[in-house]
Amino acid sequence: MQHIHAQKIAENDNLIIAKLSPRTGFVFRKSTEYMKLNYRFLAVALCCFVLLLPAMVNRAPFVYFDSAPYMNNAGKAIQLVQDRLWLGSEIVPVESAQTAGLQTSPSGSTGTLAGRSIYYSFLVWISAATFGIGGIAFVQALVLAVLIVICLRIAWPAAQPAPFLVATLAMSSGLSLLTSAGFFVSLVTPDVWAGMMIISFALVLGAGSDLGRGTRLALGVVMACAALFHTSHILVLASMTALSALAMLHLAWRKAMAVRYLWIPALALAFGLGGTMAFSVAATVATGESPVGLPFITAHLTDMGPGTRFAQTSCPASGFAICPYADRLPIDWIDFLFSKNPQTGIFAVVPPDVQRAISDEQIRFAIGTLIAEPLATIAGLARDGIAQLWHLSVNDVPLTAKDEAFVVEGFEPQTAETIRTSTIWSRAWLAPTISRVIEIGTAVSFAGLLFLALVKRLPRHGAVARLLLICFLGLVLNAVLCGVFASPYGRFQARIAWMLPFLLAISLIVPRYSDYSVPERGRP
User: Fold this and answer.
1) pLDDT tens by residue, 81-121
2) In 10 A of CB 265, how many CB atoms?
3) Mean pLDDT of the chain
4) Can you say whether the dihedral through the CA atoms of 33, 36, 40, 42 is positive or negative?
5) Which listed residue, of 51, 330, 400, 434, carries a Cα 20 to 30 Å from 176's Cα?
6) How many Å apart are CA 38 and CA 13, to the nearest integer?
7) Does position 309 have pLDDT exceeding 60, yes or no?
C-alpha cells in the first residue's frame, strides 16, 4: 500500500506538496488559494441560483409600470441614433424621438422624460440579448450573490469550505424566500441596486483594508452603476459620502474607518452625476429640448397640505404654472404625476409647455411654501421621512391581469405574452402575500437586532461592526430622502428592507464563530 506524506512548505498555506512513495517519485502540488477560489465560486453560484427562485416560480421576471421604459428605451435609443446619423447634422424632431427613440413625458409631450435611466435600460437590453427576457434578474442575482459571499468572508474569515457553503445556502435561501431580496432581484427596475450600493459602500469604508484591490474596485463599479441607474441612488450615495467625510474629521473615526478609500465612493458619485448630465446633453442634442423631470417636490407638498394652501392663497399673483389647476388640489401625489384623468391628474394631462414649467419651477414653489408655512412644511416633511421607514408594501408593484391594457400597450408583443403567462398574472393575492412576508421578516429582524443590542451581543469592534453601522445609516438615509423628496411609498423602502435580515444573519455568525475569526492571508 502506498503512503502519502504531506508537507506544508509555506506558512500562509499557499502551497502544499504531497509525495507518493519514493518508488513512484510522483509529486502533486495543489494551491490552497485555488481551492478557496473554487469553493467561493461555488458559493456564488449557489447563492445566485437560490436568489433566482422567485423568478423561476413566476416563470418570468416581475414587471412594474416603470419596467416598460427600461425594457424599451435602449433599443429605441439605438434606433434614434441611427436616424440621427441618417439625417446627418439635422436635429431629429421630437415626433421621431417618440416613435423611434426615448420615453416621452406622460402626455406625449416635447422632449424626453428624465428619471428612467438609459444606462439601466442598456443593461436590461444587453442582458435580454445574452440570457433572454430574464437576463436582468440573473445579472442582479449574480451581483448580490457576490456581495453576500464577500460579507460572509469578512464575518467568518476562517470558515472551512463545507460550513461556509452551508451558511451561504442558508442565508441566500432566507433572503430569497423570506425577505424582499428575491422579489426585487427579479423585478425589472434598478431598485435592488440601492441596497447593493449601500453594502458596497459599507464594505469599502468599513472593511476596505481587509479586501483586495480588485475587490475594492469591483465594489466601486457596483456603486457607480447604482448611481447611474437612478437619481435616488445618487442622493443616498452623496449623503453617505458627505456624512462619512464629516465623520473622518474626528480622530477616532479616522482610525476606525478606511479613510484612504473614501475616494472610491466619491468617484462613483462623480460617475453618476456625470452620466446623468451626459444623458441630458445627448437628449437635448437628439430632440432639441432638455429632458423634463417629474415634479415630485410639488406633488408631495400639495398632497401634504402646505403646498395646496400656498398655491390657493398666492395664485394667480405668484404666476406659478400650477395656478390654473389650484382648484383641483389637494391631489394624491401619484395621481398628480401620473393620472390621465382630467379630474384627478395634473402633470400627465396638462399641455407640454405647462409640464415643463411645472417641472422647472418646483424648487421655487418649495421655497415659497416653506416661507409661507415653515412649521407645517418642516414638520410634514420630517413626519413623512420617518414614516417611510415602515412603508414596505409592494401590493401595487407587480403588474397583473388588471393591468392588461398597459401591458399590451407598453411592452413588445412577445414580452407582453410572457408577462401574461407568468404565475403572478392571474393570482392577485400573491402581491399582498409578498408584502406580508416582507413586513413580518423586517419586523422580526429588527426585533432580533434590537435584542442582540440589548444583551450586548452585537459586534462592537472590527469590520463587521463598521459594516452594520454604515448599513444602518444607509437604511435610514434611504427612507428620509425618499420620504422627503418624493412621498412615503412602499416600494421605496421595501427595495432595501432585505438588508435588516441580512445584517441579523451576519451578526449571528460573528459571535458564534468568534473563536475562529482569525484573519487569513487570502483576501476576498
Assistant:
1) 666 655 443 443 444 444 333 444 444 444 566 778 999 99
2) 25
3) 84
4) positive
5) 400
6) 16
7) yes
Q: Which residue has the cell 403567462?
A: 421
- Bridge partners of residue 5, in order along the sequence: 19
- 345 to 183, 341, 391, 442: CA distances (angstroms): 30, 5, 24, 34
What pLDDT sits at residue 104?
47
Cell of 119: 444606462
- The 10s digit of each residue's pLDDT in 456-465 is 888 888 888 8
Looking at residue 174, its amino acid is G
For residue 47, what is its C-alpha cell? 447563492
How many CA atoms within 13 Å lie on the side-chain side of 389?
15
> Which residue type is seen at 225?
C
Cα–Cα nearest to 347, from 366, 367, 361: 361
Judge whether 78 and 126 are in contact, CB under 8 Å. Answer: no
Q: Name the pLDDT band for 11 (thresholds 50, 70, 90).
A: very low
Three-state SS for 201-263 is: HHHHHHHHHHCCHHHHHHHHHHHHHHHHHCHHHHHHHHHHHHHHHHHCCCHHHHHHCCHHHCH
Beta bridge partners of 28: 18
Quickly count: other Cβ atoms within 10 Å of residue 246's Cβ: 10
- For 476-496, b/e burial (b = at least 16 CB within 10 A) is ebbbbbbbbbbbbbbbbbbbb
pLDDT given for residue 456 in this prediction: 84
Among left, alpha and beta (phi > 0; psi -120 to 50; other), residue 193 is: alpha
User: Cell numbers of 222, please?
Assistant: 457596483
Beta bridge partners of 187: 62
Instruction: Give pLDDT, residue 82.
Output: 67
Bridge partners (DSSP) of residue 161 are none
| Neighbour tally for 176: CB within 10 Å | 24
Its sign, for the CA torsion 430, 431, 434, 435, is: negative
The predicted pLDDT at position 85 comes to 56
CA dist., res. 495 & res. 193, Å (int): 9
For the cut 70, the answer to whether the pLDDT of residue 358 exceeds it is yes
Going by C-beta distance under 8 Å and a sequence separation of 6 or more, which residues neighbour residue 419? 60, 63, 399, 407, 411, 425
Instruction: Write the DSSP symbol of residue 91.
Output: P
